[in-house]
Amino acid sequence: MKKNLFLLSFLFGSAVAMQAQSFASNDKGVFLRAELRALVQSKSDGVAQRGMDVEAIVGYRFNERFSLYIPVTGTTGLFKTGGVKSYEQAGQLGLGFGYAPLRTDRDRLEVSLRAGNTLGGDWHFRYYDLGVRWEWADLKIPPFVGLGVRYQDCYKGGFPDYCFFYATIGFSIRWHRMKGR
Hints:
mainly beta
């Protein structure tokens, strides 16, 4: 957990240092995003699993359509096997790419593709994520909602692989918008 907090503070510090760049009015620049995700899955190998993710993202938007970002995620997995309930926690670090095919002055629809890996603990997995997020883009701190699918490839700890559907909510902070540009 200390490694996750150190990494998150390092990424936040990097974003603050990069905010000194000048930003054009075309939505180019550094952004921070906070996200809360509920994962829903059916049984796999007789084990039911649900989960909850809390995620912080540091990213850079190259123009009004393309962005690249680093998500740092904390996942809590809730398992149920034969009436016995248990949970596991895992921290992940990943890389994501976003493309906004539909964008107006008021809102933005982004399709995102992410991949990542756990940082340690008993529950080890790689994840591959495809999601769609709709953002109210005309606000200084725009909220968003989204839906997506995630595949978790568990490679240690005796856990089966899972395919999840998720719903997400969150907000973004864009440095160039906060400065009134």
